[in-house]
Structures are given as structure tokens and as C-alpha cells.
Recover the amino acids of this structure.
């Protein structure tokens, strides 16, 4: 079973989002797991646990403000890797794809890869959960109470350990790495990130043009 896991804060899934999901899923059977009136972290854990307990084999984490292209699901599946992200940017005129490289100081640097489209999936250190396909065996290898969290212990150069915050999406990727799984991103799965309050879509076309590889 394919679970589309959507931790909506309001429980409202807009028709445009539903239409895009239906278009990319085609004849695939799927179930949408959502909730309402929960903080993001709680919602992420709640919806994932429900899908896991109902024996989902594929978990497609797709935020309720992310519109996938029609090729999204098939392209992500065809990569045949345990964890793979589509290209989702932040909602800003200075857009950056939510795929991260960890630098020498342990900080996450977004959109720091020389990726182009069209192109092949490439390995990343971490990715956001806006459009992330995960196989069940990844979750099997991580304790459920470690799937998503915001706080983690970080060892400083002087040996001290301090608690530091990070997004639950980055946390998941770190835990998956520790369990032996690599994370990939697919440059051809170019999603729209929608500000529903204004109807604005991010990024604009100039962002993709910047990353486009000439094919002629």
C-alpha cells in the first residue's frame, strides 16, 4: 500500500493539491494520511505511525502546500533507492532547493550541489520532507520514537555536549544515515511550493532556468 503522508495543520487539503496528487498517482492505489489541529512535529509522527501500523510499504511525504508535477511519483519510484526527494524550494524570492550538504562545521548548507535538470538522481546529505519518498524498510530500521524530532545532542570541539535544534526533516535524514541508508534527490521532479494566502508559487521559472542543462 502507498501512503501519502500529509501533516496538514488545518486538515484542509485543497482541491488543487488533490488534483495534482491524483494526476501523478495515475492508476496506483494510495491512501492519504492527514490530521488537523496538531503542531507539525506531532502531526508528522501521528500520520506516519498510522500509515506504518496499517502496513504501508511506501511512504510519500508530501506537504499540503507542495504541488508535485505529473511525473513526480513514477520518477521517484524509478530511481529505486530507499529515500529520494523531489526538488522543493523555500517560499522566498531567493529560493533554494531543500536539499542540504553538511559542511565541515556540521552546519546544513542548502542548494549547495551542482545539480542540473534534466539529470539523474544524486546523493545528498539531507532533504526536506516536502516531497520525500521513503520505503518501509527505512522506518523498520529506526526506532519509532526517533523518526522525527527537533532536538539532538551535538558534541562541541572542546568535548562538551549541548542540545541543538534542527528541523524534523533533517533529523529523519540523519537517523536514516545512521541506519545505513543514503538520501537522494531527483532533479527532474520540480515541485511548486504554494503560499495559499496569496496564491504565489515558488520558485519562479528563472530558478529552474539557472539550473537547466542545455540538451541541444
Amino acid at each position: 500500500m502507498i501512503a501519502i503522508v500529509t501533516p496538514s495543520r488545518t486538515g484542509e487539503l485543497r482541491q488543487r493539491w488533490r488534483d495534482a496528487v491524483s494526476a501523478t498517482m495515475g492508476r496506483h492505489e494510495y491512501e492519504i494520511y492527514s490530521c488537523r489541529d496538531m503542531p507539525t512535529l506531532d502531526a508528522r509522527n501521528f500520520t506516519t505511525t498510522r500509515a506504518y501500523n496499517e502496513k504501508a510499504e511506501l511512504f510519500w511525504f508530501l506537504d499540503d502546500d507542495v504541488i508535485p508535477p505529473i511525473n513526480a511519483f513514477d520518477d521517484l519510484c524509478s530511481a529505486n533507492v530507499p529515500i529520494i526527494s523531489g526538488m522543493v524550494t523555500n517560499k522566498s524570492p531567493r529560493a533554494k532547493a531543500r536539499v542540504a550538504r553538511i559542511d565541515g562545521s556540521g552546519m546544513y548548507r542548502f542548494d549547495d550541489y551542482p545539480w542540473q535538470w534534466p539529470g539523474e538522481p544524486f546523493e545528498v546529505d539531507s532533504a526536506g520532507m516536502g516531497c520525500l519518498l521513503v520505503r518501509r524498510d527505512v522506518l523498520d530500521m529506526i526506532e519509532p520514537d526517533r523518526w522525527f524530532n527537533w532536538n539532538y545532542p551535538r558534541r562541541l570541539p572542546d568535548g562538551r555536549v549541548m542540545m541543538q535544534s534542527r528541523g524534523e526533516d533533517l533529523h529523519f535524514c540523519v537517523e536514516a544515515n545512521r541506519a545505513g541508508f543514503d538520501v537522494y534527490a531527483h532533479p527532474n521532479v520540480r515541485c511548486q511550493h504554494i503560499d495559499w494566502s496569496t496564491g504565489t508559487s515558488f520558485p519562479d521559472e528563472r530558478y529552474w532556468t539557472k539550473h537547466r542543462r542545455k540538451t541541444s
